[in-house]
Amino acid sequence: MINIALFGPPGAGKGTQSRHLVDKYGLVYISTGDMLRKEIANNTEIGKNVKSIIDAGGLVEDEYIVYLIEQVIKENGDKNGFLFDGFPRTYVQAYILEGLLLKLHKKLTCMISLQVPSDQLKERLLARSFKEDRNDDNEEVIRVRLEEYEKKTIPVADFYRDKGIYYPVDGTCSVEEVSQSVDGAVDKSLKNILLNVVVYGYPGAGKGTQCKRLAEHFDLVYISVGRILREEIEHGSELGERAKTFVEKGVLVPDEIVIQVIEDRIRVNPEARGFIFKGFPRTKIQTYIMEGFMKRMHSSISAIVNLDTNSLACVKRLNDRGKTTEGRSYDEKLNYIIQRLQEYELKTIPVVKNFPKKIPVINIDGDRPRDEITEELFEAVAKAFRRS
Predict the structure, then answer these.
(1) Is the CB of residue 149 less than 8 Å from the CB of residue 12?
(2) pLDDT > 90: what percent of the chain?
(3) How many helices (H) and strands (E) does the chain have?
(4) With contact defined as beta carbons under 8 Å apart, do 252 and 246 qualify?
(5) What is the pLDDT of residue 176?
(6) What 8-state DSSP symbol labels residue 330?
(7) What are the tens digits of pLDDT across the range 289-334?
(8) CB 276 within 8 A of CB 222
(9) C-alpha span between 156 and 132 (Å, rounded)
(10) Which is the catalytic residue, given 107, 124, 145, 340?
(11) Which of 14, 207, 213, 265 is catalytic?
């Protein structure tokens, strides 16, 4: 999800660039000015309370703004993201937006600031007043609005600069040139967004092979709880001893062990661009655990991959693997193999089907040569990343 705040003084061209960003990224447009004018036009209670303030060029009380913004976000929770035009305008509002987005499990991707000298702003606003017959663009109101901006709004830049998501853009260029600079700022900010993929499939579907290839191709960290625990068992660690009985039988490991494994892997990779999760979450309870991980990282799942394979073919693959040096203890007994497939059907397939619809699910035919699967997977995941 992409959430952008477009920042700049009155007349800087926020409306024009907002339309550009909304069209390009499929965002929901949130303009505090438009929302308030709509409330006034509809003669609502909020409209009645804010009309005189707006006519005088002042800033409307935060409680009205926050109420209107929250309603729009809640009504459009399944969209690609939001474009905030004209909010936050004050240091306090920056904190308010931070808290509001946190409450709604979202965060701001970037703050783009359109910078235009005050003399050019006055010319633009007066021209707009004449053309559009707007009462809030006369000379006195313009002076008040620009002074208000200087006094209360500029400190917002420092707030987002400290967070590392503030991007100044020269707003005096042509519309096309400004749009290009804005796109560049968005592209730069998107590099800071974690890309997280969950890969599903029956035991024996080839998840491990494809996860390793995805991790290498997209420069992500591969997390396989099973593989990590087998290494812990081999090293004789305390964690390995706790997990040994479960791993040898190929049954689900207790969640407290799973959490420790994933937490440790995320902690030792603070510079990661994202993570590939092999077969996690496997149960409904683990979906809540995954949400907790994502929230702590201020991130989300970018895509879900489902390797669609024939279960009988998976039984044969696992049985054949059990006869090789790569075989695992739970590959050696047919009843263990069947138990694992049944557990996947009973607990994990419902999880895959019940992920939020906004997360793209990539279904891949897994009964093909590995390289064919990989080629299709790379293309599909890259497309999902661009969307996320």
Answers:
(1) no
(2) 50
(3) 18, 10
(4) yes
(5) 95
(6) G
(7) 999 998 888 788 999 999 999 999 999 888 888 888 777 777 778 8
(8) yes
(9) 29
(10) 145
(11) 14
Provide the 3-class DSSP secondary structure of residue 159.
Answer: helix
Q: Which residue has the tokens 């949400």?
A: 291
Side-chain-facing half-sphere of 80: CA atoms under 13 Å: 17
d(CA 274, CA 136): 47
Is the model's pLDDT at 52 over the cut of 90? no
What token pair was written down for 46?
């909020």
Cα–Cα distance between 110 and 192 in angstroms, integer? 10
SS3 at position 135: helix
Whether 19 is catalytic is no
The arithmetic mean of pLDDT across residues 92-96, rounded, is: 92
Going by C-alpha positions, the residue among 285, 308, 305 that lies closest to residue 359 is: 305
Select the more confidently predicted residue: 58 or 204.
204
- pLDDT category of residue 238 using cuts at 50, 70 and 90: very high
pLDDT of residue 386: 67
pTM: 0.59
184 vs 182: CA distance, rounded Å: 5
What's the confidence (pLDDT) of residue 151?
A: 80
Q: Catalytic pick from 24, 48, 79, 134?
A: 134
Asked whether residue 193 carries a pLDDT value surpassing 80, the answer given is no
Going along the chain from its start, the domains and CATH numbers come out as: 2-190 (3.40.50.300), 195-387 (3.40.50.300)
316 has catalytic annotation: no
Which of 37, 122, 128, 244 is an active site residue?
128
Q: Distance between CA atoms of 86 and 143, rounded to whole angstroms? A: 18
- Does the annotation count 317 as an active-site position? no
228: pLDDT confidence band, cut at 50, 70 and 90? very high
Q: What is the mean pLDDT of the chain?
A: 88
| 359, 304 contact by CB (below 8 A) | yes
* Contact status, residue 346 vs residue 282, Cβ threshold 8 Å: no
Is 370 considered catalytic here? no
Mark whether 14 is an active-site residue: yes
Cβ burial of 296 (10 Å; 0-12, 13-18, 19+) is exposed
